[in-house]
Amino acid sequence: MLAACSTPKYAYYFDHYDYNSGKKKSQNAESVLAQQMLATPETSPLHINHEAVTASAGSRIVPLKNETVKNTASVFTAEDQKAFAEKYKAMSKAEKKDFRKELKSEVKKMMKAKKSGKSVDSIAGTKAMDSDLKMALIFGIVAIVLTAFAGVNAVFWILGVIAFVVAIVFFIQWLANQ
Questions:
Q1: 10 Å Cβ neighbour count for 139?
Q2: Whole-angstrom distance, CA of residue 119 vs CA of residue 126
Q3: DSSP secondary-structure letter at 45?
Q4: pLDDT tens, position by position, 155-175
Q5: Second label for 94, Cα 20 to 30 Å away, from 30, 80, 85, 130?
Q6: Among 142, 141, 137, which Cα is nearest to 174's?
Q7: Which residues touch 174 (CB under 8 Å, ≥6 apart)?
Q8: Residue 89 has what pLDDT?
Q9: What is the DSSP letter of 42?
């Protein structure tokens, strides 16, 4: 008990050491304040464009009319291709190398999927988890955690049972959709 309440063997005083002591002082605070311009209300970074804040209920995603597109080059317009070419030219050498590497890996995945008979859409679908399954998993984990605290208070056990029931409901919805 005495060892637990004793002072630490090593102590460091953060307020006594000047961390900028070895650095050169380029400008003093007064000259920095003189160089800064005070922002006017029109140029303030806190000024908000009211049109940018409003929400829109319109759909921004437009589905393709033909779902099985044989030639993907026909999907992109000439303007899109020119914009991509400009972006690619603006990339640094390392960025271009990373982009080509990632593109090659994606093409290899698609070729493997095509050879095995799977469609590309089925591979993209397996990467995403269904929302009902996500909710069932979340409520299941919450139920386990709450029932672990059942020894502390009976309220945790009741909340754990409720969360478990909600998890079962979401899991049954997910099974019904499958």
A1: 20
A2: 11
A3: T
A4: 999 999 999 999 999 999 989
A5: 80
A6: 137
A7: 130, 132, 133, 136
A8: 87
A9: T
Task: Give 99's contacts (C-beta < 8 A, 6+ positions apart).
Answer: 88, 91
Token pair 């009319």 is found at 65
Separation CA 88–CA 77 (nearest Å): 17
pLDDT digits (tens, 9 = 90+) for 28-86: 655 555 555 544 455 555 666 666 666 666 666 666 665 554 555 456 788 888 888 88
Residue 14 pLDDT > 70: no
Look up tokens 């009741």; give the residue.
Answer: 158
**24 is written with which tokens?**
């050169």
Sequence spans of domains, the chain: 80-127, 131-177
Tokens coding 71 = 């030639």
Q: Are 143 and 163 in contact (CB under 8 A)?
A: yes
Rounded distance between C-alpha atoms, residue 117 and residue 123, angstroms: 11
